[in-house]
Design brief:
heterodimer; A: 4-stranded antiparallel sheet; two-stranded antiparallel ribbon; globular; B: alpha/beta; 10 strands; 59% helix; 7% strand
């Protein structure tokens, strides 16, 4: 059994990435959102890149598996990198 | 062939933005209808077509989904259609639409559809967008999934000639199975994940669900992607290098720019706004003229009778008040659908989401709020693009507060009446300033109301915001026109029925009076004409004004006078308030009838200015009562079309009712306050 849901607070999250920076998804800190993100191809082990942030830094565009996804900051904070 | 033959049901399944709707439009043309999915506020489009073999097929446009893991209302409907054999839309055949410009994610849903064990055809859509050297072998993918596979494109019509033949063969149940469990079938598993209940049940207790099930689900999803990654070797890198992706990035460097991006969006809105005002004006005048001419024609040709009046003043007026909105609705949707289909709307949402969220709204709320300045009806209809129910409801609720074009004739008349034409600071026209303040007032009222509702409305729907940013693409022209046509049809048929019914009620109230009062009025004026005291035209005008005062609407006006007196209104304004319930612009016509003048504004203003209270002898229209009346029209929901359309969009009378009461109270209290302060 894979443990996707890890304790938040000890790890960096996707929201911490600055523009153009890439990282590998390690897991999620919320089960419901985890399944949604996996379905959208944000699979643990995949590389994500921070593409753009809207004015005031929220929402943001990330690139995963060669396509762009808009997520709010509140969701990015649940993706552990 | 008999008509009663039951059609073969085909479900179009695919991701949002996968081009499903274009395929749907190309297959069914005008032969489509929108049905309400039982019990929920989701519309299901279905259409009919004949196969080459003459068989009848029903094509069902299932809401776009990324997986069979329902979180939103749309997804719940899609899942139920595909899982529940008793659903009236449960398909005999699935057309699985996979957008090849994002093949892996689209194939993820395909693996889940395969596990349903329903005959399926896999359509590789948008092949025209692939670069020449894309390196995909669609035949091999078809073999790997064990499904008949066809590359198609609704833009270039690739594959459409073969599609009907393939449908005729009936698809195939794939031998593959992706869901590996000895305990559940895939269907049972999905139901189990939803607590074994209906997919529409509130999702509050999902966290209590067996976390074991969630782990199985996550592992299952990852296994599916592993399978897909094995089949599709790294041809993906070439896709990123493809022209449309690069092109999109180039446009976005301007359109998503924090300053230029917002400036361009405002310019587009200005253009939309301008054309709704200026371009729609001509066809609207033609429609009004056409109905005025038809009414005259009927008046002349038909024998005098009650039915004649009902036909002309009830039915014709009702129909024309529906159809007169068509030019504005058409233009507005032409803009909005173009923004949606090209992918620009996703950019606007990205730019505006943060700001709108502060007020309990959504990035997508910006469109209805702006277009509400033209007309609340198409604006309320355009809220359907907002996925979150709470944010959509708040948007619907506040949109009618925006100053719409129907308030304009009322405002111009009243401003001319009570605001002196002086200059402020030597160059600003005081009357113009008053009008501008009214637009500002509407916007501020809408935003503040949204903020209040944000804290009142409770929702069980968890607010996710994970949205694909599509590449820019040009919609197929035919499909684009069909989408606009469908919006207009829905408005005319659904809102139209209610508008016409209320018009007839108002006609009846203003053309009947108790006892034989009407006959006596007619006799009185007839004798005045005979004695030469009045000429015929004058007598007709004065008689109709006296009849209105004695009609049920007039009696109603006098009855409500005590309750509107604190606002500075007399019984004649009371009648106008009642007739304005149909539509605000009726105010001017009612006033004209009451003061027995034609609708010429100059004459009417003179008459209204000299109007005195029957008892006190003081002028009726002062600054205090004028401002009070303006505020009443600014806030009250006097528009039956809006009420009808809010009912249609929320599928419940509760919301238009609450909205009506809220806006009425807002109108009453602010009018009362203004009248007290100014007099």
């Amino acid at each position: 059994m894979l443990a996707f849901v890890k304790m938040a607070g000890f790890m960096k999250t996707l929201a911490d990435l600055s523009l153009g920076e890439s990282a590998i998804i390690r897991g999620f800190s919320n089960t419901d959102i985890a399944q949604k993100l996996i379905e959208m191809q944000c699979i643990p082990g995949e590389t994500v890149q921070m593409v753009k942030k809207a004015p005031f830094g929220d929402p943001m565009i990330i690139n995963v598996s060669n396509y762009d996804l808009i997520i709010r900051k509140s969701e990015a904070q649940l993706i552990l990198i | 062939m008999p008509n009663s033959e039951s059609p073969i049901k085909i479900a179009l399944v695919g991701n949002p933005n996968s081009g499903k709707t274009s395929i749907f439009n190309l297959l069914t043309g005008l032969n489509q209808k929108v049905g309400n999915y039982p019990g929920v506020t989701v519309d299901i489009k279905s259409g009919f077509f004949r196969g080459n073999d003459g068989k009848k097929y029903q094509l069902i446009d299932v809401p776009g989904i990324y997986s069979l893991n329902p979180k939103s209302l749309d997804e719940a409907v899609a899942t139920e259609i595909l899982l529940d054999k008793n659903s009236k839309f449960h398909p005999d055949l699935i057309l699985m639409v996979a957008d090849v410009s994002n093949l892996k994610r689209n194939l993820f849903l395909t693996t889940q559809v395969i596990d349903l064990k329903i005959p399926t055809i896999l359509l590789m859509n948008m092949v025209d967008l692939l670069p020449k050297n894309h390196g995909y072998d669609f035949n091999k993918i078809g073999l790997d999934f064990d499904l008949p596979t066809l590359p198609i494109s609704s833009t270039t019509k690739t594959g459409f000639s073969e599609l009907k033949g393939l449908i005729q063969k009936g698809g195939k149940i794939s031998e593959k199975t992706f869901f590996k469990s000895t305990v559940f079938s895939f269907q049972q598993f999905i139901k189990e994940l939803n607590g074994g209940k209906s997919f529409f049940a509130t999702k509050d207790d999902t966290s209590k669900n067996d976390s074991n099930l969630k782990d199985i689900q996550a592992n299952d999803s990852i296994d599916r992607y592993n399978f897909i990654n094995k089949i599709i070797k790294e041809s993906n890198t070439e896709i990123t290098g493809n022209e449309s992706f690069k092109f999109s990035k180039k446009i976005d460097s301007i359109l998503l720019h924090p300053i230029f991006g917002i400036a361009i969006f405002l310019l587009i809105l200005l253009g939309m706004f301008q054309s709704i005002f200026s371009l729609a004006e001509f066809p609207m005048t033609w429609i009004e003229d056409f109905f005025a001419l038809s009414a005259d024609f009927l008046r002349e040709k038909l024998p005098n009778s009650f039915l004649k009046d009902l036909l002309i003043d009830g039915v014709v007026v009702g129909i024309s008040s529906v159809l007169v909105f068509i030019p504005q609705i058409t233009l507005l949707f032409a803009f909005i659908i173009m923004m949606e289909e090209t992918g620009y709307m996703a950019r606007v949402i990205f730019l505006m989401d943060r700001l709108m969220r502060r007020f309990g709204l959504n990035g997508r709320s910006i469109i209805p709020i702006i277009s509400g300045a033209a007309c609340a009806i198409p604006a309320v209809m355009s809220t359907r693009t907002i996925p979150n129910w709470k944010e959509r409801l708040i948007t619907i609720f506040v949109t009618p507060l925006i100053t719409c074009s129907a308030r304009l004739p009322v405002f111009t008349l009243l401003i001319a009446l009570v605001i002196p034409q002086k200059m402020v600071f030597g160059f600003i026209n005081q009357q113009g300033l008053a009008l501008f303040s009214l637009y500002l007032l509407g916007f501020v009222a809408a935003i503040l109301t949204a903020l209040v509702m944000k804290f009142i409305v409770k929702t069980n729907e968890r607010s996710y915001f994970i949205m694909e940013m599509p590449v820019y693409r040009l919609p197929s022209f035919r499909s684009y026109l069909l989408n606009i046509f469908e919006k207009i049809k829905v408005f005319v048929v659904d809102a139209g029925k209610i508008i016409i019914a209320i018009s007839i009620v108002i006609f009846a109230l203003s053309s009947f009076g108790p006892g034989n009062r009407f006959e006596e009025i007619e006799k009185k004026y007839q004798s005045k004409v005979e004695s030469g005291e009045l000429n015929y035209d004058e007598s007709v005008k004065m008689a109709s004004s006296e009849k209105l005062a004695n009609s049920y609407a007039g009696i109603f006006g006098k009855t409500i006078q005590p309750s509107i007196a604190p606002l500075g209104f007399d019984w004649k304004i009371g009648i106008a308030l009642i007739t304005s319930f149909a539509a605000r612009e009726v105010f001017v016509a009612t006033m004209a009838t009451l003061y027995s003048v034609s609708e010429d504004e100059g004459q009417l203003i003179d008459k209204m200015r000299t109007e005195k209270h029957e008892i006190s002898g003081k002028p009726v229209y002062t600054l205090a009562s004028g401002v009070s009346l303006i505020l009443f029209y600014a806030f009250a929901l006097q528009c039956m079309s809006t009420i009808a359309v809010v009912y249609r969009e929320t599928k419940h009378w509760k919301w238009p009712f609450i909205q009506f009461v809220y806006m009425f109270l807002l109108a009453y209290l602010s009018s009362f306050a203004a009248f007290e302060l100014l007099s």
